[in-house]
Prior knowledge:
The protein is mostly helical and 245 residues long.
Amino acid sequence: MLRLLSFALFLATWWTAALFVGGAKLPSPPAVLHVMIAEASSGALFLHLGATLARVALAFTLAMSLGSAIGYLMGRVKLADRLGDPWLILLLNLPALVVIVLAYIWAGLTEAAAIAAIAINKLPTAIVTLREGARALDRSLDEMASVFAMPRWRAFRHVVLPQLAPYIAASARSGLSLVWKIVLVAELLGRPNGVGFEIGVAFQLFDTPRLLAYSLTFAAVVLVIETLLVQPFEARANRWRPRAA
């Protein structure tokens, strides 16, 4: 109920602001909705949205897989941590725009370059979170697994992974929010399709209704994925933790 009230308040504020500012700078909700329907009817909206979601899925999966493995290794092996820490600091502070531009210069304006650039920008946050998770592992549980002669994979599955699950969930949530932003920049700079590409075209044409139509559709999809996928996964990953009274 509160979410619906918040949405209604947003629409009312938007509509009121559009009346004062003017449709050229801030089109009204019906004007933006008209563009959404027109783009959806032509199929362009779904084409570009699908391209963006595919890039997000590939880059996110790649970054989480590599980041989890590297972060776990750095958290468990001091030598790996010392070797990787300077590069980790560099990646954490390197602007996303620099990574995207260099990827396009070195690998060309290709799909692989775009996905790699997005994944690289997400990678250090995953490494940092999983490294902290690996450092926080209960050593006594490792000793228990050794005493009972548990096979390594089984010990990892039943002893280590449940302890890492909250960190994986936190990394996934924060990383996905980062990927949503970066994918639009990558598409704006070097892809011939996607929501970011359409926003760039709308900007060049000063087509505010079209810009808002794609932006708000993208935001709506992000909200749905966050509500239906990310939040339930995070709750499941933390289900073993005692709840505060």
